[in-house]
Amino acid sequence: MSEKIAFVVFYQKKNIYSFNALIGALETVEELDDIDLYFIRGSENLDNELERICENHQKLVLGISFFTTQLWEINDLLKPLRAKYKEKVLFVAGGPHPTGDPKGTLKMGFDIVVVGEGEETLIEILYNVKNNKNFDAIRGIAYFNKDKFLITTKKRRWIDLDKYPPLPIKNVKFGAIEITRGCPFACYFCQTPYLSGTRPRHRSIKSICNAISVMKSYGKTDIRFITPNAFSYGSPDGKSLKIHLLEKLLIEITKIIKPKGKIYLGSFPSEVRPEHVTKETLGLVLKYAANDNIVLGAQSGSQKLLNSCNRGHSTRDVYNAVKLTLEAGLTPNVDFIFNLPNETEEDIDLTIDFMYKISDMGAKIHSHTFMPLPLTRFAYEDVKDVDEKIIKTISKLSSQGLAYGEWKKQEKIAKDISKYLKKMN
Questions:
Q1: Interatomic CA distance for residues 105 and 93, integer angstroms
Q2: Helix locations, 86-227, DSSP H
């Protein structure tokens, strides 16, 4: 009799998008249909559920995806599970932090780290578990061998997004639909180009619409997108705009979800580049989308600082984007990152002046604190306290309803991350 195998997903709110794509891919492999899938929410439920699943399965693989900001939470979660289940469970990690810090992730107690995109890697891991094969030939993973040496296998090629659906269909899960992966701008504080490449890959309109049709059959017709830059859909380089392709996508989606469905474009969970905010792109939002706001990535009011981060746009681009967005009757929510490396007193003053300027126009400031992240150019930069002048400015704007964000919480986490990365380096 064949062994019963279970793949357990630790299905946290912050990480559901990545697992939706992974399970969507897994469902396409008929040979793995006999692997039972479980989605467990909440760390308080994980131990009891694993114990119950272990009773009915000979092999159990637990998948956990996480960001660097979740490092300590996942470490605390894993320790008792590792001690209790030992070799009964194969612990597999993936996502932004494990990809950037495979050795540190393995030291936490994971057996395998998926490095980079996980769709095909996960399929091969589960195939090898089912067929009692070792993992040596699987590309895109890291593990410790029997002598405790770190083994990192060859990098896997970027996948064709159309090869797999963006959402699980058999194990029905819904969420924002990833339409583009990869970003050409390679900002020095951002992990995206290192995780997904600098050449944009776009999911086809047919693939996107197939997923939306499935969603509609379950009564889900509010559509949001995952993309590094919402207005760049269809662009071969991610820098130029292909308005006709973006509009064609919106037209086809509208046909499916009408009359009550809603499209949200350029708002949460995605944002747009300021230089891509034009009358034409905003016109598409007004014609096809339901959102009343646009999320713009500004990051600083100092051109010198933008240049040192490799942002690839100007403060003038941000100002123009805010102006055009307001003229279209939409609210611009403008992202700023405080404490960026190389920030000087002059940069701080310029950013404060710029925030006041655009908030007086009607923009809202979305405040963030710089966090060093593995793989990025700024991974080992120092983290300082947020300048007192910035704190006073954000406090004033917040009291007027013109600023929001979790910069205080991020400031503390940033210091912890900095200490961790420097220790691991």
A1: 8
A2: 96-100, 102-107, 119-130, 192-196, 205-217
Cβ–Cβ < 8 Å for 295, 333 = yes
pLDDT at residue 425, as a whole number: 74
Residue 412, amino acid: K
Q: What is the mean pLDDT of the chain?
A: 95
Confidence tier at 1 by pLDDT (50, 70, 90): very low
Calculate mean pLDDT across residues 103-120.
97
Residue 153, C-beta contacts closer than 8 angstroms, at least 6 positions apart: 136, 137, 138, 139, 140, 141, 142
Domain 292-425 part of CATH 2.60.40.10: no
Q: Would the CATH topology of 174-267 be identical to that of 292-425?
A: yes
- Is 123 in contact with 130 (CB distance < 8 Å)? no
Count of C-beta atoms within a 10 Å radius of residue 364: 18
Going from the C-alpha of 260 to that of each of 6, 282, 285, 332, the distances in angstroms are 39, 22, 17, 25
The tokens describing 80, both together, are 């008792």
pTM for this one?
0.94
Q: Rounded to an integer, what distance in angstroms lies between the CA atom of residue 369 and that of residue 381?
A: 13
Contacts 24+ apart (CB under 8 A), 123-128: 123/25, 123/26, 123/29, 123/32, 125/61, 125/92, 126/5, 126/7, 126/26, 126/32, 126/35, 126/61, 127/29, 127/31, 127/32
pLDDT for the residue numbered 317: 98
365 close to 403: Cβ distance less than 8 angstroms: yes
Q: What is the pLDDT of residue 2?
A: 61
pLDDT digits (tens, 9 = 90+) for 179-224: 999 999 999 999 999 999 999 999 999 999 999 999 999 999 999 9
The domain spans of the chain are 5-152, 174-267, 292-425
One-letter amino acid at 265 equals: L
Instruction: Kindly report the CATH number that applies to the domain delimited by 174-267.
Output: 3.30.750.210
Question: 45-81 pLDDT, tens per residue?
Answer: 899 999 999 999 999 999 999 999 999 999 999 999 9
Q: Classify strands 293-299 and 201-202 as parallel, antiparallel or unpaired.
A: unpaired
221 vs 152: CA distance, rounded Å: 42
Superfamily name and number for 5-152: Cobalamin-binding domain (3.40.50.280)
